[in-house]
Design brief:
The complex is a heterodimer of chains A (344) and B (301).
Chain A lengths: L13 H12 L6 E5 L3 H4 L2 H6 L4 E3 L4 H13 L3 E7 H6 L1 H10 L5 E5 L17 H6 L5 E3 L4 H13 L4 E4 L21 E4 L4 E5 L3 H14 L4 E5 L2 E3 L3 H11 L1 E9 L4 H10 L6 E6 L9 H7 L4 H14 L6 H7 L14
Helix pairs in contact in A: 1-8, 4-6, 9-13
Chain B lengths: L1 H5 L14 H23 L4 H6 L1 H11 L14 E4 L5 H10 L39 H15 L6 E6 L6 H12 L5 E7 L8 H4 L5 H7 L3 E6 L3 H12 L6 E6 L23 H10 L4 H8 L2
Parallel strand pairs in B: 1-2, 2-3, 3-5, 4-5
The chains are: A alpha/beta (344), B alpha/beta (301).
Amino acid sequence: MSSPALIGSSGDSLREAFGKTLSSLADEFPQLVVLDADIAGGTGVHHIRKSHPAQFLQFGIAEQNMMAAAGGLAAVGLLPVVTTFAVFCLRAIEQARLSLCYARRNAKIVASHPGLDVGPDGGSAQCLEDLAAFRAIPGMTVISPADATETALATRAILEFNGPVYMRTGRSPAPAVFGEGHVFEIGKGQIIREGSDVTIIACGVEVARALAAADMLAADGIRARVVNMPTIKPIDRELIAACAHHTGAIVTAEDHNIHGGLGGAVAEALGATVPCPIEFVGVADTFGSSGEPEELAQHSQTSSSVVRQLSEERLNIGDVHECPILLAALGIEEAGEVAHGRQR
Amino acid sequence: MTALLQAPANDIAEIEIGVSLEALLSAAARKARMHSLAAIFHAGSGHPGGALSCADLLACLYGAELNVWPEGIDDPARDRFVLSKGHAAPALYAAAAQFGFCDAKEALTLRKLGSKFQGHPHVVDLPFVETSTGSLGQGFSVAMGMAMGLKLQKYDARVYALLGDGELQEGEVWEAAMAAAHHKLDNLCVLIDYNKLQSDASNDAIMRLEPLAAKWRAFGWAVTEIDGHDIDAILSAFRNAAVTAGAPSVIIAHTVKGKGVKMMENVPAWHGSVKLTREQTEESLRELGGSIEEIKELLDV
């Protein structure tokens, strides 16, 4: 009998890029230790287990202990990277809160299998709440890179950064968005496609979908700007405000619940700077289900065509003072009384 | 007791007066109990029962076992202590103050706005606090991580964690217990303040722990059971743990919740968080052998 064909981290997935990069950085960061909860083949850290076994620590299927133990490892001078699936990070979020963030430890959490990108494993495994949950912890930096290239850059960046970080990778093969020369800086977003009618701000796998949506919109004569926003916290407020000012309408796109993640962070930034109409692409406060990632994206309204559709709708709503629904919600009859609208 | 206050922890030779180590530690524990109650009185809230039950263990740790000194608090090769039952913070602060790790008077600002002496210990506030605790189970895991990291870096340092008995109901405790044994962390020693009571009632009524020693043995730990108020027995258990190779050690210390104060002994209501009146506090301090001067010094600040 031959061995079964294992479906582990391979190809051009973000988890594979993370795992390979971590292995390549192990000599450069001698204090680095990687913590695993019996899921190394899934998170990509099987590479470092093989290349640097002394820097690989097995914790068994016990995420709470692993997360808090990272605080102890950091306390004695090591650089721990906790790895597991995103949904199991939620299980240990209180450990991340107290023993990493409150205790001001320089420890990293890298979570594979976020969002609908998990695919066939189904709703129980598709973590759609992590960005919101980890973003709410004081001192936690939250990152969601868009492709393998950016994941490799972000992996180095978080090791160089002093402080707790939560970073998403991804399970499924992801299309390349960036080429050689791409720059990743924690806390900075970047305009990756120019446009003046609407800005689509995306993170993770939705960046590629946002670019595809922008192509579709261009065919309709709509010039959509696309912003890659890999750092959810601290969010790049200046860039967001500038985009709102220049394009008037904003659409956010993320493989996450529409509540509290990238969309929430962008809305908070805009509320405090340039209030502007926003449309949120994401999973509408529900759970996922089994299926292939692209099928799920269609089914759960996170596909590129949905990004396109909502971008058009956002434009069609027009200025705030022309929108009867918004006006009614605000209890205002006279259009002119609304101070803020699109800035085109 | 000036000699005691100034004595470097773990350095018996430098204590010149003719007092035995046991008497010295016993006196430190008594003073720590008094200080804990005074601090809880001033705070208007806090957990006296579990602070009184672990005072002897803490005095022995800081006074005789931990290889750590106030002036070497950042030494990477130092021993670490983690109060995993963080709600016993008043006893930690009081014991640390007895051995020069913090100012005893300042520690009476317990739980006040702006105080470094929070209701549960915070690593950022105080140099002798090794990690922030207050969520049961986590301190043990952090201590386990410290022990693992120290071993990886070839330090001889030991790590001690004090857990409550109710704390053992947290699943994380058994995750950490399994991991410590699996990784043969013989530089890790857990102390259990086994006072048999938890927040609402007895362990037996809330969630049975027995057979406790058998559980730890089954998890691969070297187990010692002692009277947690017997200084000799505590020191002896530390010595045994220090020479145990290939496995972590657990000292199950049978204690009395509220030890030393009649109205609190074995009464779950004094677990806390409770408010102590001036009269209750004075009476408790007298029972603990406090002189008029000592009581005045602790309460009239």
